[in-house]
Every structure is written in C-alpha cells, then in structure tokens.
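User: Show me sequence and structure for the first protein, then do the same for the second.

Assistant: Starting with the first protein.
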Amino acid sequence: MSGKPEGSGRGRGPRPGAAKAAALLPEDWEELSYFAVDVETTGLDARNCRIVEIGGLLFRPADEDFEGRRIARLVNPGIPIPHVVIGVHGITDEDVHDQPAFAEIAPEFLELARGAVLVAHNAPFDLGFLQNELARAALPRLVNSVLDSLVMARAAFPGQPSYSLPRLAAALRIKQGRSHRALDDAIASARIFVAAGKMLKAGVR
C-alpha cells in the first residue's frame, strides 16, 4: 500500500454496521480458504500508476498459524517510481530494475487466489490495481468474492483513532512485520480480518 487512504477513527458507541458486517461471514467462515493480498505501487491512481510489489498469503482462520502458501515478489513497473513514494515503501528503481513484469508473476498469483475469498485492507485500492494490471496483461479479471478487513474492523472495533493498517494492528496487539511491504501487510490484514470476524460473530450470538 503506497500511503493509500484508510480512514480515521469515529466516536465511540454502538458498533455501526456490526450485524451487517457479521452477515457477510457464513457460519463456517473459519473453515474457508482466504487469500490476503497487498500491493505496493508507484502512486495512488490505479489507472496510471503501477504495482512494484505484490504479497499474498493463503490461510484459513481455523488454523491460526498463518503459515500457508504465500507470494512475495518485486515487480518491474515499467515506469519510474517517484521519490515521494519511495519514501513510503522504500522500493527504488534499482530494486525493481531486474525484476519480472507483472504479466510474468500473474500466473503464480492467480493460482494461489483460485477459489479463495480475497481479503485486503481497503480492498478497492488493491483490487483496482490488480484488475488493471491483469487487463494490461490480457488476462481474465478476478472474480473472487472479496472481504475488506478495513470495513470489518470499523464495525468490530469502533472508536479507534486510526484504521490505517499499522496503527490498527498496533492497537489490537497484532504482530507486524515491515509496514508498507506487501507480504507483511497482507499477513497483518489477515490477522485483523480474523480478529474482526471473531468479534463480530461473538456479538451476534
């Protein structure tokens, strides 16, 4: 995530939309397969900017070890990475110069995502970039079901001062790796999603 907008906290009180968010999860949600995904990019506009790193984790909430199959790949975007963006994720033109283009990585990514529910923090951002990259590579669009850990967290944990991924993970005492690196952020998104799902399901019983 290259500094993508993720929202701020709201006032405390009843959990807005908690029942609606919980309804997104089937009763056996902890047994299903999910693919948490995150991308780092050259900017915020999915139409004109490109992916420079992709990370993903295949997991089941019931396993709780988050040691499933994963992908962590730098991507040559074919365009320069602005200095202001390098200041966010630390990925430079030199880092990606000899890396494959997205089209070369896409088959591995699509294999992991096949049949899984996609999870991302502020999912429209990541999915927008992924769909545009797939279109540029003349590959089929993703048709997976998608659940947004940001939406789930806002409903499950109201009143947080920030719902950005690193601040929310810290508030929930969720283990984090390097902020704004794709695989570490994908794993944090998965952990937040599971924590929010358990809270929401407990609240409607």
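Switching to the second protein now.
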Amino acid sequence: MPTVFITGGSRGIGAACVRAFAAAGWQVAFTYRASREIAGRLAEETGALALSADQREYAAVERAAAEAKSHFGPPDAVVCNAAMAEQKLFQDITDADWQRMLDVNLLGAVRVIRACLPDMLHRKQGSIVTVSSIWGQTGASCESHYAASKAALIGLTRSLAQELGPSGIRVNCVAPGVIDTEMNAMHSAQTMQELAEQTPLGRLGTAEEVADSILYLCSARASFITGQVLGVTGGF
C-alpha cells in the first residue's frame, strides 16, 4: 500500500485529503498543530496516523516524519497543505506579520519537503504536491503577504520539479480558487456570495474537489506530470 504524509490534515482541504487518500487505499499520516480532539476523531474515522507538529519548527517536522516512517514506511507522496491566511491593508502589515506568514506558508513547506526528501531520493521515486492559491497567481487586495507566500510556493514547486525530476520525483502544485472552508470564514457571507457569483461555474468549490485533484497528482495516473500548477478554481 502506498503511503502519504499530509500536513495540516485536521480540517478543510487537509482533512478532505486524509479521507480521499484513505478511501483510495493509501496509508495516511497527517500533522495537526492545535486541533488534537478533531485530529483524533479523523484518525479514528479513517485509520490514519495523527501527528502533532508545528511546521514552524524543523525539529517537530522531523519528529513527525520519522514517526510516520516508523509506522508506515517511507512516504510515496507528500502533500504540503498546512497554511495560514490573514487580511490586512499593506501599510498595516508589520515585519512580524510578513515573517509569520512566510514562516508558515513557504518555509513550512520547505521544512516538510526537506524532512521527507532523503527517502524519496534513496528510492528514486515519489510525488510532492504543494497547495498554493489562485491569489498566488493573480494577487489579492488586502492579502499581499498571503498572496506573496503562495506565489513563492509556485516558484518552489517549479524549481524542485526541474531539480528532482532526474531522480524520479515529481513535484506539482494545486492552486484552489474560492473554496468553502473554515479558512475563508474570515470573509462575510456577502463577500463569499459575491466571490461565488464571480466564479464562472457560479458556486464555491469544496475541499473534496481540491483533495481529489491532489490525489490524482500523487497517483500513477499522473506519472508524466511534473512542474505543473493545477487550478481548481471553477474558472475564477
């Protein structure tokens, strides 16, 4: 059975990934930062392994990756999903805000990949999927630090795809549009309705639809796909 290591798996797109991979017959290990009770229920529901880890700390990421390997063996796929979002006017974003955003969204993914990559290199196989955002491609008013961190993930993805391709490792990115998740709860109902109306398909996306795309990119069906950014946006 193939094994996947998913970050930020206790809610939203991450939880949908845990369920999708488990249903497809994968062995699943996922990290969570604070939602211990929710993570425990999800682990019980799916048979996945829940691991506490704050991806701002490399030692914590290393411990989680090592525990997942001890439990299931080396990962066949890694999904870098854990992230944060924040709305602020550009002039109100402090250096500390910038540092925290980049530390979680960009460097967090870097730490996860660094911890899992040696086994993939040794086996000369594997798939890595990063989770960016449509805002990482288009930019976003009042979310410049978030959009910048997600744009950086795209650059990381494309660079690693070139670097790791000769070792048989594929690296791709999913860029969700407006998805009906807890992370978007910071927007008002009116704003979410307006965003749905701006989406050509006329609705918000679901976490399950994003998870299905991530599962596809990690599967053998995507064996000749690397360095790509797949927009799951409803045409937004």
